[in-house]
Amino acid sequence: MTEPRLRDVQCLTARGLHRMAYWEWGDAANPRVVVCVHGLSRQGRDFDVLARALSADFRVVCPDVVGRGRSDWLPDPMLYQVPTYVADMVTLLARLDVPSVHWVGTSMGGLIGMALAASPDTPIARLVLNDVGPAIQASAIARIATYLGQPKHWDTVDQAADELRQISPGAGALPRERWIELTRPMLVADGAGYKLHYDPAIAEPVRAFTPEMAAVGEAMLWHGYDHTRCPTLLLRGAESDLLTAATAQAMTQRGPKAQLREFAGVGHAPLLVEPEQVAAVKEFLLAP
User: Fold this and answer.
1) What does the domain layout of the chain look like in residue ranges?
2) Regarding beta strands 193-196 and 16-25, do their DSSP bridges make them parallel or antiparallel, or are they unpaired?
3) Which of 30, 53, 152, 177 has the maximal Cβ count within 10 Å?
4) φ, ψ of residue 90 in degrees (nearest 5)
C-alpha cells in the first residue's frame, strides 16, 4: 500500500479525555509491530518513507503526539510533557493488542521510548533512538525555543518549506522536492494560506525548562538507560547540537550498549528518508 490508514484512540489525563490520532501502514493483522514517534514539533507523517520500507514486514504505527497533527489539543499547556505522552502511548499499545513492539523514536519520540524501555516488563523488544540520549544540550533547547510556537503564516507550501528548511539542520542535503513532501503534513489551512498544524502551547513547557530541571531529568534518564536491556540502535547526525558525540559514545558503553550509526552532513535530527538511514533502521529491526 502507498497510503496509511488514519485511526485514533482515546487517552486520559487528570483534565479528562483526549483523542490521539495515529497513522497505520501494512497488514492490520500483522503481530509484528513497529511504533514510530516523531520529534517535538513534528507529526506522524514524518515517517512515510520509513513506513513504506517497513510495511511489507511489519505493521507500522505512527502517532500524532497529542497537540500535533490530527490529534486533540490539551486544555492545560503544562500537560505537554513526557509523562503525558508515555501514558498516551501505553493506551495506544493496549489498543494494538500485541505482546511486544519495536520502537523508533526521533528526539522527543526517543525520550518517550527510553521511558517505556526502562519500565519493568516493558513491551519494547528493540529500540531505535534517533539523535537523542539522556544528556540533552541546553543550547539546542534554546535554539528550538526561538521558533517553537511562534505565530507563522505562509501564502504557499513552497514558502513554508523554505522557512522550515532553514530551521531544520537534520535535513542535510535533502532534495527540495522531498522537503516539500515532508512539509505538507506539517501545515493546515489558515485563511488563504497555511499555518503549522500544532498547538502553539506546546512551547510553554519548553520555555519553562530550567537548568535545574535539566540536571534532574538527565540523572533520571541515565538511570533508566542503565536499566534498559533491549537491543538498541542509536542514530546521530554528525553535526547534531542536541546529542553530542561524547554522550553518544557513552551510550555505547552503558546500559544496553547501543549500536551507533552516524550520518555525515546531517544535524538534529536525521529525517529517516535517505536510503542509508532507512537501511540502517530496517537492518536493525529485521536482524536475528
Assistant:
1) 5-286
2) unpaired
3) 53
4) -60, -40
Q: Going residue by residue through the chain (288 aa), what tens digit of pLDDT does each one get?
A: 578 999 999 999 999 999 999 999 999 999 999 999 999 999 999 999 999 999 999 999 999 999 999 999 999 999 999 999 999 999 999 999 999 999 999 999 999 999 999 999 999 999 999 999 999 888 888 888 889 999 999 999 999 999 999 888 777 788 889 999 999 999 999 999 999 999 999 999 999 988 888 889 999 999 999 999 999 999 999 999 999 999 999 999 999 999 999 999 999 999 999 999 999 999 999 999
Is residue 84 within 8 Å of residue 202, measured between CB atoms? no
Of 144, 175, 143, which is closest to residue 161 (Cα–Cα)? 175
Q: Please, are residues 266 and 237 in contact by the beta-carbon 8 Å criterion?
A: yes
259 phi, psi to nearest 5 deg:
-75, 140
**Contact yes or no for 11/95 (Cβ under 8 A):** no
pTM of the model: 0.96
Query: What DSSP state is assigned to residue 227?
Result: T
Residues whose CB is less than 8 angstroms from the CB of residue 205 and which lie 6 or more positions away in sequence, other chains included: 77, 78, 80, 81
Q: Which three cell numbers stand for residue 175?
A: 532534495
Pairing of strands 33-37, 101-106: parallel
- Spatial separation of the C-alpha atoms in residues 189 and 182, rounded to whole Å: 16
- Per the listing, cell 502553539 goes with 200
Q: What residues contact residue 194 under an 8 Å CB cut-off, 6+ apart?
A: 153, 154, 155, 156, 157, 160, 187, 188
